[in-house]
Write a structure and sequence with these properties.
This protein is mainly β. Helices cover 8% and strands 45% of the residues.
Length: 948
Amino acid sequence: MYLKPTPLHAAIALAMVAGSPAAYAQDSSEPTTLDRVEITGSRIRQANVETAQPVIALTRAEIEKKGYVNVADILQDVTAAGAPSLSRASALSSGRDYGGMFISLRNLGPERSLVLIDGRRMGVSAGGYSDVGSIPSSIVERVEVLTDGASALYGSDAIAGVVNIITRKNFDGGNVSAYVGQYSEGDGQKRSYSANYGKTFERGWFSVGVEKSKEDPVLGGEREFTAYPNGPYHPQDGLNGTTQWGSVTVDGKVLSVGPGGDPSDVANFKPRDPATYANTKTNMTLLSSLERRSAFANAGFQITDNVRVVGDVLYSERESVKQLAGYPYSVSAAQAASGARAALSADSMFNHWGKDVLFSHRTEEYPRATNNSLTTKRAGLGLEGSFETGSHLWDWNVNYMYNRNEGERRSRQSMYQPHVNLAVGASFIDADGVARCGSVGNVIEGCVPWNPLAPAGSNSTGSLSDKAVRDYIFTRFSDEILSTTKVLSANISGSLFSLPAGDMMAAMGVEHRSEEASYTPDLMVQNGEIAGTSGGPTRGDYTLDEVYLELQVPLLSDLPLVRELSLDMAGRYSDYDNFGGTTNSKFGLKWKPVDTLLVRATYGTGFRAPTVDDLYGGTVTTRDRITDPCDRSFGAAARNAEVAARCTAAGMGADFRQKTGDGELATTSGVQAVTDFTSGSNPDLKPETAKTWTVGLVYSPDFVTGLDLSLDWWKIRIDNVIVGESATDILNQCYVQGIQSACDRFSRYTSGSNKGQVSGMNRSLNNAGFQETAGYDIGVRYRLPEMAFGQLSLRWNTTYVDYLSRKSDNVDTTPVEQYTGWEGNFRVRSNLTADWQYGDLGISWTTRYYSSMKEKCSYDLDGGPECNLPGFQSPYTDMQPSRKLGSNTFHDVQLRYALPWEGTVSLGINNVFKHAGPIMYSQPNSSFTYYGGFDIGRFIYMKYQQRF
């Protein structure tokens, strides 16, 4: 096909296909022969790369100018990307996908963002997550991000958009690279080494890439803004009363010998000193360690002039380690009475009080660690070719893809409950001076007595300094994770016939896909034998068959104010073996009034089936951080008469106070609950349905050479949205929003010392009413003409989110909750990159902007430095003292130089000015008082590339 390039056509082709400076040098007066390519957002292979769908393209050259070591970091810089899911700062997350790297477009979750490799689905976990970090960045040619729903073209999961990772192929030569960097504090070192090589020959090609990277951990105690549970402004708040010094409850008094104390003398036990409470953040990983090894290869061979065989393989190993503070072991009266946890026996040699007593001890000397590893094996094989029918050309392909993820989660320093119960039972010193479990003549063989009242560092009998004690009460356990994706597809696209305005194009295809996943917890976990950990197995599968049709209809062309007008239509029918059939469609309109202006609009419907984890994932128990709205100091009842009335009616009167996990009164909001809550799957879930809209324009004025402007409005609405709500959300729905169904999802203690505290909650997944978001994407790209002082180019991308909202049911009176501008949901994200090239020398500067955020106040509730919106009120929060935190801007710089021997050396700094984000007590996407998506310091790196 021969086209006369226009400024707009050249701009889009450069951004989405070429990505090289040479593309700017084309003479627009001469016809150019363009290969047919398949652009993300359409199944039709064509030479015209201008589409009705908004697509962001990141070229290889642009990727190399960033100081990143994996594809996930690259994608996180896309302004349409939301807060990082399962952030590496979320050490307390119990998610099975922890350690992976995922993309969440529009802040709608990674399970609603479809990831492709060369246009074909990437495998997913049981939770529907695609780990984009498993792909070697050295083999990536470009990344295309479709910021529009595309279920009609790609099927389920493409609600928020599509990420298509295009790999390198058909090239000769190779390169090797080495990357090393670390934070200016001297920690968090990253090393990455990669190599790739490609070779073309008369009838085909092959290419291969390998990569190895390692990232060291950073502990919370290494940064001031994460060193304390409630941040540096309140270093004493949030400290935990379950300490490494041990404590015992006698006649209602909590006693401890404190640091360095001698537990053998009862006189040393004094009331517990709050100054010695535990800081659980010191030994918790702020940035978990990460190690990856991956290899990718693809090849093609021309069997005949019109038929070739193609294939690709991916092998990846990922290992991530997170560390937590020592386990906060404690025994409540209810646990002792039920036998779930044994009290310190009256017959224990460490008990001075002659009766069973409750106790607590944090195993801080030996922090818990969880190693999440995943091996990905992916292979694809296909035939593709082309043929002509008269003057019309057709392309076809048949492909099979197999992806298998094999994971293991290994936990260390976990407490084995049966042994702990025996170790704190009856014990004595035998004739040889050895501590024994049981009694004289009735020794429990193999058992080693434990003294939970011995403080950390003590060398007294039964303390954790004794390896025999540790070996007996600590254990390791391992969970197995497996998921398999298989896809068989056949596609054909080409020209049906000619119309006055051009060829009518079509694409059609069929696809069969199967998803299977399982999660098998260690038998000790399934049996409830690990303190604080339980879970059931997951196993499930489903299959589906799909057929789709896409049409591209040219309506008018070469008329005044209608240089081009075309209509795109697509439809897809999906038949699930567990849900039945669904049909989704999409319509796109493309209008060019003049050569330099493109106006585009789309409308589509979408569908997301519940994942295997959603349906069959079993249940787990977790100890959540909550803010009880009935708390009369920090809850909504403290300032809202209607909420207070609801709480009083439920039995929580004017003196009700929320307690922390160790039984103390809460000193701030968002503290750990007194008991574990249940969360998990729901076999009765319904599929999500969605509608998407976009309207936009692209303008490349011919009077400013090299300038491209784009503006797109978008809107996404999801009905029957599958959500796993937090414990605080459920409590607020009950007491703040007055939703009676939410009140039925939890219970409270009716007697005892914890009377009124939440005693249990079911946080299993459910279908909410709807979720909706809308906003604007703005793009500016300007490449100035080359001058004597070099060439300057600018790229500016901005996403403005008008709203992100959710309604928890379909009751008319239920308020719609707004998330934009709250806790990691930014209203504006903007990136500006300036790049200057002068011969072999290049410099790039990137500015990353995040708009302000709000959160509920934890301090100064009546107004003050940490609560600047004390009178905030809205339909979804009611009266809620809130604080607004300012915007944040980070700056990155890179200096690069091309050496005479085909080498390039780059030096860079990310977060040049060492900017730190604000303290956030809501801990968004993090286990610390700091947003999990912000930089944690100034990062300095060096990279060397050698081409051959």
